[in-house]
Write a structure and sequence with these properties.
Number of domains: 2
Number of strands: 0
Radius of gyration: 14 Å
Length: 65
């Protein structure tokens, strides 16, 4: 279950706000378990990710980026 802080993204998707702005193929991919947002972004599996900054920096350092 998504955290309440992300509710706006789900409401925007449900109400068609992304499509109104030209983002017709938006899919929200919840993280957790095997999905690490910054790793999915680095791998090119997603175009946008939200993650905790220290985790992102650690992932960048680990990949040499």
């Amino acid at each position: 279950m998504p955290q309440a802080q992300f509710a706006g993204y789900y409401v925007a998707l449900d109400q068609g706000y992304f499509a109104e702005e030209g983002f017709d193929d938006v899919e929200i991919v919840p993280s957790g378990g095997d999905i690490v947002p910054q790793d999915a972004l680095i791998a090119g599996d997603v175009d946008f990710a939200i993650a905790w900054v220290p985790k992102v920096l650690g992932s960048l350092e680990a990949t040499g980026a």
